[in-house]
Structure formats: structure tokens, C-alpha cells
Amino acid sequence: MAAAAEAGQDGAYRAYATFLGKSGRMDQALPWWAKAAEHGDADAARTLAICHKDRWEFAEAERWYRSAADRDGGCAFGLATLLKESGDQDGAQEWYARGAALGHVQSLTNGAVLKAARHGAFAEAQAQLDEAAELGDRKAASARQVIENIVDDLELWEERLARAEADGDAEAAFEALSPLRDPEYAGMFTYYPSTIRAAEALYARAAAVGSHQALVEQAILVARDSDRIEEARALAVRAHELGYSGAAYVLGVWAFERGDQRTAEHWFETAAAAPDGHDYARFHLGLIGIMQRRLDEAERWLRLTGDTEDENDQYGGLPRMFVEQLEEIAAIRADPARLPDPELAARLPELRAAAESGGAEECFAYADALDRLYRLPDAADWYRKTGTPRALLELGRMLQDCHADETLLVPYFGPAAEAGDARAAYSIAGIHTHAKNERAAGIWTLKAAELGHARAAWGVGWASEQRGGDPQFAERWYVRAAEGGLARPAFLAGRSMVRWGRYAEAERWLVKAWENDIPEAAYHLGRALRRLGRTAEAEQWLRRAVERSGDFDPPRGPLEGRVDPRPELAELLVEAERDEEAAPLVADILAEYPGHLAGHRLAGRLARHRGDLATAEQHFAQIEERDSDPGTRMSLREIRELLAQVTHEH
């Protein structure tokens, strides 16, 4: 095959690339896929794009998709999806349309959904989905049903609102839109952003009737777009000025999520002081007090909510979330290490003077002291004033600890990550992981791994292995993680090397894994040493594996079976003609798993060794149709020939 590919024979590039890929040698396969793609093979271009996308090499993936997208619907679809995931919605819309024109039905479906999601073009989308369904795309019918439900719901809410508007009933107008606040519709807003604009318009109409709550709900929808946060804040302030106490709480939450505790505290106090009081505002005031170690204030806010007269209830009937924070206050008071350091507090005037007259280092030292003394708003100010990547990184970490919205913190981690800080890059990856942005999480995990972050390297390898098809890439990153001192990736690297026949390389990593109490490493190490001809050592490791097999990790997926080291040890013993030692192992295997392939194969060999041809035939016959080992059929044929000779002689 290699010779045919080198000679450029028709179809040989693809055939050789496929062979290498199936053999776990994707690094060697990629150049041959590229050769095939360069000679006009659109499937090869798509395969290359997928491989590079799975390696988070998005520029390369886009290049290969584009190389054939104008003539191949699958590549057009892949390109559109890639662009959509990157945020290029216009590009995605264009290439879904071009894929559909090339007859690619999934492009027709996805393009229709994107039109509905972006522009609210529901009628046009439904027509396209009908067409896609007729062409056989089962997903099109379910997508059409979702859109039909959305359209029906919007029309129903519009009708209810119109009746309330006609009556001039503000309360009824707000209640007409109550389903929009149901968590069930959170997915609608996420996957069909055009519905946000429709819902926003409905709330604006309810607010015009006089519902101040509707004004706040409108503001919350507007705030989903980070570029419109000032507009959302203005709507909430207006609702507050009109007398709705819940608006102050919402304004407090927005400030709290952005790490602005001063502003958050102002609005939470406003909400808590309202005639009807606001329990969750008090809860947040308690949180802020704990974070800033203003413990007496925090306790006072948290205790305002209880209403029981039960003398045995020391927390006065408070909800559990309030009680947990009061318990946290007690724990802090009991631990001097969690309280502000008096010596550092005494040095604060000196540090401030140095910061005001000095440079970035002095500013950072003052900000750091404020941070450690829990004077968080002031610390945030001075970290920002310092402005160095290190200062912004510490600010980001501080705000993370203060429960700020992580998606807003990326700019604080970014400068340090771009300057080569692996931990900062890994933090950004974690933020995107929590936000379920797989593309961004992958990019930053890979960057952190490239910068030397061991856990990131482990994550890159694990994600690649889970996708399947690229064991070399996964193994490369497991090795990097193991070199960073992690035992589990050392095991995964060694196991991969054994699977692909690189036994000598595997030994180092599997020994490391065993020394770090990963017992399954003994099994793979035994297999490797056996194939290296080091039979005595292999036997020792396999016996250890049998002894510790109860401690092996359970299978991690439905396609993985539990590792059993007994067949490997039994086979080693049979090959060494130590049948008496092997026989009990084989018997145990078949007692536990009556249909076990290796168990029957070994039992057949043992029976043949002792001259019991009938029993040997029974064992081999049971697995003849299932066993891919040609030795089974060969042994069975020989045994049957021998049995026939014996029968003929008698």
C-alpha cells in the first residue's frame, strides 16, 4: 500500500491514509490524506478538517473545509458549523445555504434553524424544514415542531397581553407573560435568541400598561446581551424609581456578579430596607459581610429573616442557606488564620504611602495587602490601578472567590495567559468549560498544556481519546502530563503504548503509575514485559495484577470492559508448559464467565496437552464462530482430523 501511494496510483492515497488511521498512526496518515485532498478528494478534505478540529487546530480545519466546500455539501456543512461555533453567524448562514444548494440535507435543516434562531424568520424556516423532512432528515421534523410550538406560544401570550392592554390592567398584563419566567423557556432563549427580542417587546408593552415588574423582566432580557448592560441598568433604575423594590435587588445582583461589591451593597441595602423587605438581599449582604470579614454586620443581616419562637432553634427558623452562612461565620471566628492579620493591618499606612509615591511593584504590594486583609473593594481598585498582568490575574482570582460571574473575568486572566502563565490559561479554560463553550475551552486547555500545565495536558489527551481515532495525539499529551508529575496520565500513556505495540517505551510510565498506587498498571506492564521476552518479570507483574484486580477502576464507558489479568497470566503459564498452575485459573475464568473466549481457547489447549481430544474439541467448537484468532479454527480442524483417525482405526 505504501508503494502504491508513493507511486500515486489511483485511490492509493486514501487507502493508505485509511489504513494508517485505523492502525492508530494518525500523524503518519495526515500527509496522505492531504495528498488525496490536494488531488480533488473531497472526503479526504473533510477527514483532514475533522482531524484538525479534534486537535483544536481550527485554522487548519477551516482551510481544509474551504478547499472543497464550494463543490462538496459535507465540507460546506462542516465549514458552516465551524464558523457558527466561532461566532461567525453570517458565514455560517452563507455556507449552510451553499451546502443546501449542493444537495446536503443537513445543511438545509441547520440553515433553517439558524434563520429562526437569529432573525425570527419562523415561516421561512418551517418551509425549509418541511423540505428537509421530505428529503429524509428526521431531525428536521423535530426542529419544525419546536419552532411551531414557539410560534404558538408567542401568539398565545400576545393574545393574553392584548386583552390586558384593552382593560388597562397592569397586573393582568404582567401575569399574561408569566410562562416566560418558567425555567422551561430558558432553553428557548438560549437556542433561539430571536425570541429574546420578541419577549422583550411583550414586556415593554406590559410595562407601558403600568407593570413595573414587567419593566424589570424586560431589563433582565436586555442584560442577556453584554453590550446592552447599560440599557438594562437604566430600565431597572427606572422601575426602582417607580416604586418596585425588586428592581433594587436585581441591580444589586448585577453589580455583585461583576465583582462591584460597593455598588452591590448599596442596592441590596436599598432592597432590604423596603417596606416588604427582601430576604435574598439580606442574604447577599450577609455574604458580602463574610467576604469582607465584617462578621457582626453579616450576622445581623442573616438573622433578620427568622420568624419562629421555638426556644430550641438557635437560628430562629432561618432557611438552610442562611444557617450555613451563620455556621461559616462561627467557623471563621474560631480560626485566627481566617481573620485579618493585625500586624499586616498595622503596616497598611506605610504600604499605602509607598504605593502612592512608587511604581507598579509598590501598588501591587498595597493591593495584595488589602486583599489579604479582606478589604476587597479597595483591593480591586488598586489591582486595577497597578494594571500589570500579574495584578489583573490576582484581581480575577479574587473576584472568582467572591462569586463574580466567571464569564466576565476572562479579561483579567487574559494578559497573564498571553504572557505565558499556564495557570492563567487553564483558569480561562475552566471558565469556558463551566459556560459550556467547548470550542473556547478546548483552545485554552491546549494553550495551557503547551505552556506546561500538567492537568491541562491530561485534559487535552483525555478529550482526544474520548473523541476517538487519534491515539497518537492523546498519548503525546498524556506523556507531557506525566512528565509534569501526574500519575494517572502516566498510566494512560503506558496503556496506550502497550495497545500499539511500543512495549519498551511503556515500561517507564507503567512503573510510575504502579508506584503511585494505580494497580491496573501491573496488568499492562506484565503484558508489555511478556512481549519483550522478559517472561519471569512479566509473571511477577501479572500475579500482582491478579492479587489487586479487585482494586482496578471500573469501566469508564459502555464500550469498555472490566480488565481481567487472569487470562494473560494463564496463557503465559500454558506457553511455559506449567499446565497444573494454569488449570485452576482457567477453571475460575470459565466458572465466572461461561462464554469467555480466551478461557475456552486456553481450556482447549490444556485438554489437548493432556490428550483429551473430545474435551478440547468442545471448547474450541464453542468459540469457533466468535474467535478472530485463526489458531482456534486451525486447532479445531487438527483435533477433528485426529478424532476421525482414531474413530476409523477402531
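That was protein one. Protein two is written in the same sequence-then-structure order:
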Amino acid sequence: MRKWLWILMACFHAATAAAQTNADSLAARLADKSMSASERIRTLNQLAAYYNKDSTNIALVWANEAYLLALREENHDLQAASLLNLSEGYLYNDQYDQALNYAYTALDLVETDSARARCFTFLGWIFYDTENAHFSQQYHQQAYDIYRRLGDPRTIALSLNALGLVYLQKDEFATARKYFDSTLQLARDRGLGGMVATALSNRGICENEFGKYNDAIADFNQALAMLKGGDELSHAEVLNQMSYSRIMLKEYPQARELLAQARTLINQSNSNTRKEKLLDNLTNSVLLYQQLGEYKTAFTELQEYTRVRNEILSKSKSEAISALKLKREADENQTRIITLVAQKELRSFQRNALAAGVVLLIIIGFLVYSKLKQKQKKEKELEEVKRALIKQELEGALMEKEALNNKLEFRDNDLKNYALYISQRNEMIRHFIDELTGLDIHSDAKKENIARFNKMVNKFQHDLDINKDAQDFNLSVNEIHKDFFFNLLQQFPNLTENERRLCAQIRLNLSIKDIASLNNISVKSVEMARYRLRKVFNLEHKDSLSDFLKNF
């Protein structure tokens, strides 16, 4: 485990300012009674961040006080900041269930993208430490996407390095190397010295996996040069990794010296993560002594490795699968002194519990499946009822439309018959007048007959000009075909009253002769009027004027 690498990344942006501030001065500020509640919460969180790395229990006290005060103030942002400090503290103590709970609670409270990305980063490290690379990659990728959108080079570099560590955990070393190279390039361009050292060290680990031990040593030396005066465990981690390179190159004296230097730095540190660096040191020590043939010493180092590892992993409570497995193995080791009968009873109990759990899961699964099927059946029935109602409404609308169309067609036929009647009547009157005017009344007729005939002709001519029936016909057309005239005028508002009337008569399929008789005009006048309408409507020669008007 290489926890210092990711802990440095997770805490870098939260604790940098706090690490620069003296803890005593921060504590002294808390005595100021005039300090606002928000400022007090921020100071408490600074103290928690300051102590989290080396004095986690003290940090948890400060963070818990900050959280309670933030709850009282109902400030979600400060609550989330306090929860993340609590999460970090429990993560250092390997209490992953608590750390995960606080991180998820913080995620539910945050509102800004930067705060959400920070929560994703914490979640990524929690799952990384429990060796769940899938979820760790998912959360670190979400954090990286946000940071890249926000455009902050430092946080982008942190996320790139975190993704590289996840791929390193998955043994996908080529992919991990690409992420570390990207981190290194960005850190150098932006002058992020600490990130440069971290990326170099991580890249060196990849070089070791590729068998490029000299290249790895070059990266480690560069990292050490940049870490002068820094954290002891940071130096120790690089020295541990470099010792592995020396062992693989069979440079055993140099490897022994590097391991000794790393062990000294580890023993000097009070950090909660020192045991993890000790594990790396012991692992390489076992390898070194095996290569040297000093098997007794190698065995002693291996025993120490097992003791330290069990001590670390026993603190994982229930969330990490690997920790649960190791705990079960530890329990089995402790029960070896129990008699065969007791062991048989224990295995029987475990089998029964497992069987009960399986049966319970099957029952729950069946109930859930039945409920889902019932819900789907109800939804299907409801959908069928809706479809039937829609179909019924649609059929009713179609029938209503058909009835309206039939009614309109019937009234159109009435209008047409009425028009034909008027046309025939006018034609008859015209013929009658023509016959009257053709009578010879100048020979033997008396003057009173002449006056009478003239009066008759004038009366028929007057009635024909007034043509009240034609006016009634036009009024009927206007009343029945309101929608037609409205739609027509929407598109052609400049049509005259005579043109609109002619459009309605053409739409009724009246012949040119009937239209001429109906309007008491000549056939040629009707043809000219039709021609003008075609020009107004911009119709081609092949287009039907009657079909065009039926579209309105």
C-alpha cells in the first residue's frame, strides 16, 4: 500500500493553508468571543486539517465541534467541510464505514461544482484504500471531469495522478504510466513542485514493473531532490521503491542502505500512515534477505510484516471486503485450539446461516419479482384501457367529422341546385324578354298596348337586375362557407367581394355558363374573371382552379 501518495493528493488543497499556520495561534483565536460563528467553524476546520495527518484523534475532536456548530447555524457548506474533515480522520484510522458515511453525507449537502468534486475525490480514496478499484476509478473520473471543466491546473493534476494510482492498483501499468506522464507535464508547466515529485515517484514504480530499473532510479533520485526538507514518510516511500530497483539490479549493499535509511525515517514519524510505509519496507527486506540467502532474517522480517499487516487490517470494520476476509482468517486461526467437535458445530452453524441467508434472499427476490410482475400487469391493463378510450374518442371524432362533411356536402348540393334553379329561371326570363322585345307592336297595335308592353319589359328587366334570389343565394353561400372565406382571406386579403363570390361558385363546381347566368354577366366576363383569379393565385396552366379552392 502506498497511502502517502493519495493522502497527499486528497489533503493538499484542504490543508495547505492550515499547515502554514501555527496550531497554537489557531487555538488562541478560538478564545476570541467576538468571532462570528462562521469564522469559528472555519478555524476549527483549519485545526482539524492541521492535525489530521499526525494526530487524527485530536483532529476528529475539532472537526466534530465544527460540524455541530455548523448544524446549529444551518450552513450546508460549512457542514460539508466539517464532514469531509471527519471522513479524512476516520480514513486515516482505517474506519472505512465511518469515512464513507461522512463523505456521502457531505456529498448530499454540497451545492458548488468544486465542493462536489472534492467529495468525489474523498470517495475515490476511500474505495481505493479498500481495494475497490472500480468505484475508486468512477469517483476520481467524476472529480477529474469537474476539475477539467473548472480549469484549475493544480486540481486537474491531482485527479490525473489519482487515476494513475487506480490503474496502478489494477496492474494496468501502461495506462497508469500515461496518467503519471500527463501529471508530470502539467505540474512542470505550472511550477507545481510537490506534484512533480509525486508524479516522478509514481512513474518510477511503473518503470520497476516494466523492468526498467535504471530509469526508475533516475525518477526516484529526481523526486528525492525535490522532497528535501519535506515529510519523512514521503522520503521513506521513495527510498523503499528505490531499494526494490537496487535489489532487482542485484546491487544488494545499496539496497540494504536504502532500506535502513527508510526504516529510520519511518521510526521517526508519528503519522498514522507510518505502518504502511513499514509494510513496504518489510516487503523489500524479505526480498533482499531471500536474495542474499539469509533466510532466517527473511523469515523474521516476514513475521513482522504479517503482524503489522494484521494490525492495520483489523481496524477495517465492515465495508472493505478484503478486511472482512482477513478478519475471518484471523478468527479461524484463533479457533484452532478448539476441539474437533466445536469446529464441526461452528462449520454447521456457518452453513445453516448461509443457507438461511440464501433462502431469505430467494424469498425476497421472489417477492420483488412478483411485485414487479404485478405492477407491470397493472400498467399494461391501464395502458390498454387508455388505448381503448383513445380509440373510442378517435372513432367518435372521425364519425363527427364524417357527419359534418356529409352535412356540408348536402348543403353544398342544395346551394348548387339553388344556383342552377336561379340560373335556369334567369335564362327563362331573358328568353321571355327577348321574345317580348321581338314583337311587332308598331303596325296595328294601339298606343296603350305599346305602353303596356314597355312597362312589362321594364319590370322584367328591373327584376332581373335586382336579382333578389341571386342575392339570397350569395348570402347563403357566405353563411355556410364562413371558414372557406376566412381561410381564403387569410392568404389573399386583397380579393374583392365579386372575386370572393366567384371563388365560392367555382368551388361549388358551377359551370361557366351557370355562373354567367347567376351573376347576370356574359360568359366572356366569367372567363376573364377566372383568368384574373388564376393570376392572383399564381397557378400554372396545368393546375385546376376548382381543386385549388377546395383546399381552403
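Residues 1-21, 314-329 have pLDDT under 50 and may be disordered. Keep this in mind for the problem set.
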